[in-house]
Amino acid sequence: MKIKYDLLKVEKNTKARRGKLSTNYGIYDTPMFMPVGTLANVKTLTPEELKEMRSGIILSNTYHLWLRPGEDIVASAGGLHKFMHYDGPILTDSGGFQVFSLAKNKKKDIIEEGVHFKSHLDGKKLFLTPELSIQIQNKLDSDIAMSFDECPPASASYEYLKNSVERTIRWAKRGKDVHSNPNQSLFGIVQGGAHEDLRKFSAIETVKLDFDGYSIGGVANDGESKEDMYKAIDYSIPYLPEHKPRYLMGVGEPIDLIEGVIRGVDLFDCVLPTRIARHGNAFTKFGKINIRNAKYKEDFSPIEKSCDCYTCKNYSKSYIRHLLVCDESLGGRLLSIHNIRFLIRLTEDLRRAIEEDNILDYRKQFIENYMGKNGNPLN
Amino acid sequence: MKIKYDLLKVEKNTKARRGKLSTNYGIYDTPMFMPVGTLANVKTLTPEELKEMRSGIILSNTYHLWLRPGEDIVASAGGLHKFMHYDGPILTDSGGFQVFSLAKNKKKDIIEEGVHFKSHLDGKKLFLTPELSIQIQNKLDSDIAMSFDECPPASASYEYLKNSVERTIRWAKRGKDVHSNPNQSLFGIVQGGAHEDLRKFSAIETVKLDFDGYSIGGVANDGESKEDMYKAIDYSIPYLPEHKPRYLMGVGEPIDLIEGVIRGVDLFDCVLPTRIARHGNAFTKFGKINIRNAKYKEDFSPIEKSCDCYTCKNYSKSYIRHLLVCDESLGGRLLSIHNIRFLIRLTEDLRRAIEEDNILDYRKQFIENYMGKNGNPLN
User: Fold this and answer.
1) CB nearest to B319's CB, from A83, A316, A328
2) Measuring CA to CA, which residue among A148, A134, A142 is closest to residue A74?
3) In sequence order, what DSSP letters do the residues of B294-348 get, joined into one string?
């Protein structure tokens, strides 16, 4: 079935909204953070662990799975869920962002038909088109597919962005025309940088194509400021339909989740919690900390006493530090569990704050804890 | 409390025996395979996963924990169990084998007092003595400590081995004299290469010191043949008391477990199941296979259909291969789970074969499956 979004409540003082997303694999509360499973696994973790941390949708990467193991192998396995032993909903991105960020030497040739670029693995010539992206996603059999879009850098000129936005809309239509998986929903992506008129144009034209949900893209590509990210959301949201989910792509900083929710966003994804885990970093209420720091050598308390994750219930900072210092991968695994659960707990808090109409107080308190008394979320 | 070994049954046609080992953390069946948790974790796995695969005792390495994080930190954490969140029994080795195998450039200076050598991490000068090894293990608070022994290479001369065995007995006594943890059992180690008289002498003299259990060492150091390993067991076992556990150190090849059990061994440990997992290898009834092999690309069956491990119940060879090829650590984790469970299942089979007095038939069938019709366990 296609996903269905039910709007339950809009917070009194902001655009923040509580909703329910009905999927092929159960009903989930929004706002929601989606952990990233690039290569058909959320790095180091099993699906059971994701369930234990009350994760909902996970994201997997079309570009990566196209290269390895290839969409035909995933299809032969019975689709991505069966291949990776995951019976929760999966969203696949389109590959557009990876073409932008991973193409060998970042060189690519964008033409109307699609994008020529070289594999980040072996330099092999590749050509990805809006149709091919959708066809691959159809075969992967994810629950939600994304339209193929161009992701220009923050430094792109207005003129460049205008042409790019127009092409992305033509690409979205071409992708929609070939989309043929009846159990898969398809999202359109709003682009346009930090330009109000481009975002408005992109949103209106994309919505005309009637997708099952809408993403706001181009806010976490390369060098976008926080200010530009918030602008991009503010300029896009008014033109998105109330009864479809809204997804801010590639965003996972705790404060950006709060700012996004307040502006009306329902879904987020980011590699941040697992990536920083591999470097020894943990989210806490009082900001990020690096567990490798010598000061945790004999700190036998958990990362966060109030956290209900498997890691915090069972392990000390001292032990996790020991694992990290010794390059034992269990260390990164334990930190990944905590960091993902941290963001999911944050969305649980935000849902409660929406119910209680006090999300602005919640933000104030969160920022004060996380960044200090004079913390500025724009930094 | 000290461990207690109850002999339940000796198999009709061999020396194989079923027993029960009562420990500070529950009662376990023997013969038993002990997974290795070098740095206070069985690589990539949690204690809960070890329990799910019905693992009993695990082994941790005194030398490694002495260097990182240091025994005082482990003691401050409340001991090794609390430090690593493991409420099953733990055996620590003495560091003797690591001094032999890991000392920088394998250079060491063995004197009566102990061994001078350099750290494998940073070349720092270290001096380990029988007393220090026991004192470190006392602080780690493992359930079973090992006496500090010398582990000479297979190539050592008879004369060298004779002196070494005598010194190891003196070291065992010195260690026992300083052992002061009332909840920790202490094992003596029989050495003597493949020489019948040295093994006999070592066993008799070590048993005179009255340990809580006995190990057979020096069978998996460096270049020992299978034949020498089996000889070492055969020459040692007759002199070990019936009502104490017998532990063959560093052995984990499936066929060696069978041969050891048939000769009267109760306990085994080895890094093999986790080490080969990291290189993509899996144990199967029909021999080891490398899951990275291209022929598994579209093999959607589990590693072993008859295996009850988490990995075989939920994942295909194709998926695990994909993870390994992409260097996703979940691949090694899934293989570690299967490989450890494989060896634990093997000990379960062996216990059943002892009950049913048909262990020789079991061996014959196992070798035929594992090595082919003309398989020779000595190869």
Assistant:
1) A83
2) A142
3) GGGTT--S-S-TT--SHHHHH--HHHHHHHHHTT-HHHHHHHHHHHHHHHHHHHH
Spatial separation of the C-alpha atoms in residues B83 and A274, rounded to whole Å: 24
Q: Which of A319, A321, A327 to mutate to test the interface with B (most CBs of B within 10 A)?
A: A319
Residues of A in Cβ contact (< 8 Å) with B119? none
Contacts 24+ apart (CB under 8 A), B101-104: B101/B151, B101/B221, B101/B222, B102/B63
How far B2 CA lies from chain A's nearest CA (Å)? 27
**Do A336 and A273 contact (CB within 8 A), yes or no?**
yes
Q: Give start and end residues of each alpha helix (H) in chain A.
A: 47-52, 62-67, 71-76, 80-84, 96-102, 130-140, 158-178, 196-208, 226-236, 254-262, 272-278, 310-314, 317-325, 329-355, 359-371
Residues A4 and A14 sit within 8 Å (Cβ to Cβ): no
β-partners of residue A188 are A214
> Measured between alpha carbons, how far is B117 from A184 in angstroms, rounded to an integer?
63
For B303-342, what is each residue's pLDDT tens digit?
999 999 999 999 999 999 999 999 999 999 999 999 999 9
| B272 CB-near residues (< 8 Å, 6+ apart) | B252, B253, B339
Helix (H, G, I), strand (E, B) or coil at A270: strand
d(CA B366, CA B283): 13
Among chain A, residues having any CB pair with chain B shorter than 8 Å are 39-41, 43-46, 68-69, 73, 76-78, 83-85, 297-298, 300, 314-316, 318-319, 321-323, 325-326, 328-330, 332-333
Q: Residue written as tokens 């944050």?
A: A346
Given a contact cutoff of 8 angstroms between Cβ atoms, the answer to whether A324 and A293 are in contact is no
Decide: A143 and A185 in contact? Cβ < 8 Å: yes
Note whether A153 and A222 are within 8 A (CB).
Answer: yes
**SS3 state of residue B45:** coil
Candidates A235, A249, A164, A163; CA nearest to A204 is A235
Closest Cα to residue B323, out of A273, A65, A271?
A: A65
Task: Kindly list the residues of chain B whose beta carbon comes within 8 Å of any beta carbon in chain A.
Answer: 39-41, 43-46, 68-69, 73, 76-78, 83-85, 297-298, 300, 314-316, 318-319, 321-323, 325-326, 328-330, 332-333
Q: Which of A68, A314, A330 sits opposite B322 (nearest CB)?
A: A68
Partners of residue B45 in chain A, C-beta under 8 Å: 330
**Which residue carries 């366990």 as its tokens?**
B377
Q: Reduced to 3 states, what is the DSSP secondary structure of residue A82?
A: helix
Domains by residue range for chain B, with CATH: 4-271 (3.20.20.105), 278-371 (no CATH)
CA separation for the pair A26, B165 (Å, rounded): 66
**ipTM for the whole predicted complex goes beyond 0.90:** yes
B192-231 residue pLDDT tens? 999 999 999 999 999 999 999 999 999 988 788 999 999 9
Tokens of B179: 């052992």
Name the pTM for this structure: 0.97
